[in-house]
Design a protein that fits this description.
It is a single chain. By secondary structure, the chain is mainly α. It has ten helices and no strands. The protein has helices at residues 9-23, 29-36, 40-46, 50-58, 62-65, 78-105, 111-117, 122-139, 148-167, 178-193. Helix 8 packs across helix 9 (148-167).
Length: 198
Amino acid sequence: MARPRTISDDLILEAARRVFIRDGVAASTSAVAREAGVSEGTIFKRFTTKDELFQRSMAVCEAEWTLELEPRVGQGELREQLEAVALELLGHLRRVLPRIMALTAHGSFDARDFWRENPHAAPVEGLKRLTNYLDAEMRLGRLRLGDPEIMARILLGSVQNYVFFEFVGAHARMPMAAPTYVRGLVATLWGGLRPDQS
């Protein structure tokens, strides 16, 4: 007799993530069960309510949002490093931005409570790490002195906008490949970031 297949909570959460992003919060738990290849009863043995399933499947952990930037400080040609950082950030945002948008659109989400209860939430920590990276490069003289948080917000916000347009389908009207966009973004920013050549 064949041993019954077991499915982890993570596999159910991945299936729920795909269904909720594709169909919205109104998607049924039966659709999630079909996607996961389990019975609806299996879902409710693991998650007490559909809302719990939704919240847990849309949650974003810090590792999904942030990049390892400290090892890059002082390494390689900085303009190339910034392009690589922007491309990696773009990849992270493609995974997490749809979930963040779904969470914030959910009726039970209260942004004030969220930030009060999660002062080190992944988006904030990601911005801090990017700010610290740019600050470290400034201290080494590889970037012009300025406000590293403003620079980090410009870079993060621009990449986030690219991913948002991609997610909502606006790229169909004005397509641009991610590497082309990132090279252009960094080239535009580089004029204000490169150290003085005097």
